[in-house]
Amino acid sequence: MKLNSSSTTSTYLMEYPLLKLAAIDIGSNAVRCQISAVLVYGGRFRLKRVEYVRYPMRLGEDVFATGDISPAKADKFVKFLHSLKLLMEVHEVAHHLVCATSAMRTAKNAPALVARVRKELGLTIEVIDGQDEAMYINSVIEHVLEDNKHYLHIDVGGGSTEFNIYHNRHKVATQSFEVGSIRRMQQAETGLNTDALNGTWERMEKWVTENARRYHVTRAIGTGGNINKLYSLAKTQTTLDKPITRKRIATLLDNLTKMTMDERVNVAMLNPDRADVIVPAGQIYLSAMEWANINNMHVPDIGLKDGMLQTLFERHFEDFRPVNDHSAIPPHPDVQNSHSGAE
Prior knowledge:
Layout: H1 5-15, E1 19-26, E2 31-41, E3 44-55, H2 59-66, H3 71-90, E4 95-100, H4 102-106, H5 110-121, E5 126-127, H6 130-141, E6 150-156, E7 161-167, E8 170-177, H7 181-190, H8 195-214, E9 219-223, H9 225-233, E10 244-245, H10 246-258, H11 261-266, H12 272-275, H13 278-292, E11 296-298, H14 304-315, E12 334-336
Parallel strand pairs: 1-4, 3-12, 4-5, 6-9, 9-11
Antiparallel strand pairs: 1-2, 2-3, 6-7, 7-8, 10-11
Helix pairs in contact: 3-5, 6-14, 7-13, 8-13, 9-13, 10-13
């Protein structure tokens, strides 16, 4: 019996072997899961996104206000991680990594929640500090930088902001500050100007100003969901893969500030959990550019989850190394994400 071409193609696709890796990033605003397939062709490796799930868990809302994750939110958190575990099983993920950042670092009851997840789901959550967070991001950021250029990298999360300075693709300075979009939003909503937050903001300004001058920084690179969204909103005037200007960011933030929350959701088409944090987050990016006297920012659409996937790729390189590949160091894979403006 002769098979038609469509049947042959279908059988081939069903049997095509894909080794998959998964990264679960537990942030202060949202929990993200990305599953990527490891592809190799012509001697080059690629990490191709095959699944991406994001849920606005908002752990930081509880933690930064009360110091704890509420029982109701803890239950929802465990349920969502259970769904991600099932998703990884359906995809037959070979290796995964689960990391939590600022909110889980701060929550007093985080150790109990981590233990519960391990007991009920068999998942191990690594609660990482700012330096580890920067290390993961560094593993992918350094490959999108140009030689002999000086960059200020700004990564704003819900609970913290990480700054890194690069020269010739090498990190020469790094610092993490417990200032993020949710913390600043809560401060604005309550009308509080706490000494602690103001003091942190002043230290952040001093660090950026001094190090930008010391290392002659001329370019900025931004990562994080909020700068990705601002870049997407600016795409009518910004060519893909081209930098966004400081002036353009300021204009976007000014326009969003004048909108009601309903207008941000229904006119600007922002998700509700993005609509309330995008301005406080954007102000951090904009302020850092002003302190460093930088006019343009590159937004490469990579971040912590990509660094986690890169780490998994390196740890388990032997699983998918071609038989005739005798290299000692695994090559850096091309990361195929999308700058579609996804929330």
